[in-house]
Amino acid sequence: MSETPPHLLQGNRPLDPEFLPSERLFFRIKSSQLVEGQVAPEAIRFPRFSVNREKYNRPADVLVPDWPDWGVAAFKYEDVPDKPWSAVGSPHEFTFRVEHDPLPHNYAHSELRAYRNREHSEKIDVPKTVKKAFRQELAARVVVLRVPRS
Q1: Residue 130: inside a domain, yes or no?
Q2: CA–CA distance, 16 with 33 (Å, rounded to integer)
Q3: What Cα–Cα distance (Å) separates residue 4 from each residue in 95, 105, 125, 128?
Q4: Digit-coded pLDDT (tens) for 11-49
Q5: Residue 39 included in any domain
Q6: How many domains in the chain?
């Protein structure tokens, strides 16, 4: 295991809830998550999806310390669909947003979180139809920055 670079350490830095629309969000991908050079929709995880903020991070930092053979992908904060989603017959409305969630060894850590009726819970069960549609829309906006090593 390699050492965490100093710029990733949280230290005394506070939570930063402000994102610029053009701020990129980086995440790791493995070769099985690529289809014809594009990130497969299934690479977008639910109900929480870990990403790293460009404001405090470089793309390759998502590979530190233990994922040197993985690839890196990104989407912009503004790429997250901000419309409400619902499933046929469901009384619930689902929305998604990125929130800064720093960790002691990764200040850039953030999460794309699911909300049901404007409430977040670790146990939200997002309907399959909503997951599929959301994943497809976001995955279409993802750019592969580094292809994983096979």
Answers
A1: yes
A2: 30
A3: 33, 7, 34, 37
A4: 999 999 999 999 999 999 999 999 999 999 999 988 789
A5: yes
A6: 1
For the cut 50, the answer to whether the pLDDT of residue 1 exceeds it is no
* Whole-number percent of the chain with pLDDT over 90: 74
Residue 65 has pLDDT above 90, yes or no: no
CA distances from 19 to 3, 15, 108, 117, 120 (A): 28, 12, 12, 23, 19
Decide if 25 contacts 99 (C-beta within 8 A).
no
- Block residue for tokens 């998604």: 96
Length of the chain (residues)? 150
Whether the CB-CB separation of 124 and 132 falls below 8 Å is answered with: no
CA–CA separation, 98 vs 110, rounded Å?
7
- Domain span at residue 11 reads 6-146
Task: Give the range with max mean pLDDT: 18-22, 65-69, 92-96, 118-122.
Answer: 18-22
Among left, alpha and beta (phi > 0; psi -120 to 50; other), residue 118 is left
Q: Does the residue 123 lie in any domain? A: yes
150 pLDDT above the threshold of 80:
no
In a domain? residue 1: no
